[in-house]
């Protein structure tokens, strides 16, 4: 998929992910070996960041945290034709804007928001960069799951914001909701968990361990595939998915 095909992503469709890391070079080594990614610099607008690519198509961004107090996390971005307008709707629905919409040269406009429970997500208004160049294949984004303690509230909030993406498309959705259960620590806040597709889950878990990461939750079955939750060598959590 070409980078400028913004029409591929209707409002509310996951279109990009980035990792905020203490050490981008360590992240490049970890994810380069785990997923076969290569890396390039997108330009000054992205600051201390690199694009991850698979077969020369963009699949994610790795960025160095500007503030060490910020969490080491993967963040999912939902497409929107108007980040300012969507930001106003998020606030009206009980969420909040963490960072206001900010243009990144001609790449597009990004913002960070949180739902009423505090789960953080991004907004992306495409310019020259629409989002994933490859997805739904090994080494790329495959799914994002919202872990929440209030599924009814989450369904109402995201259903109002992204009704067409969640309920009105012919294609299968890329976004699910699940209750924070006893599998997870009691202190874990509501959050989005980015899933990357793999060919062999057991082999990938072995690679995570060998590269300095760890397995948080061993493989379990879901409606969308077999999943394991892991952290990278700097503590960022994500999931591996075998469909």
From TrEMBL:
Transmembrane segments: none
Gene Ontology molecular-function annotations: hydrolase activity; lyase activity
Taxonomy, superkingdom: Bacteria
Classification via CDD domains: SgaA_N_like
Keyword Magnesium: no
Keyword terms of this UniProt record: Hydrolase, Lyase
Boundaries of every VOC domain copy: 13-126
Cited InterPro entries: Anthracycline_SecMetBiosynth, Glyas_Bleomycin-R_OHBP_Dase, Glyoxalase_6, VOC_core
Keyword Lipid biosynthesis assigned: no
Pfam family, one: Glyoxalase_6
PANTHER family membership: CONSERVED PROTEIN, GLYOXALASE-RELATED
Name used for this protein in its record: Enzyme related to lactoylglutathione lyase
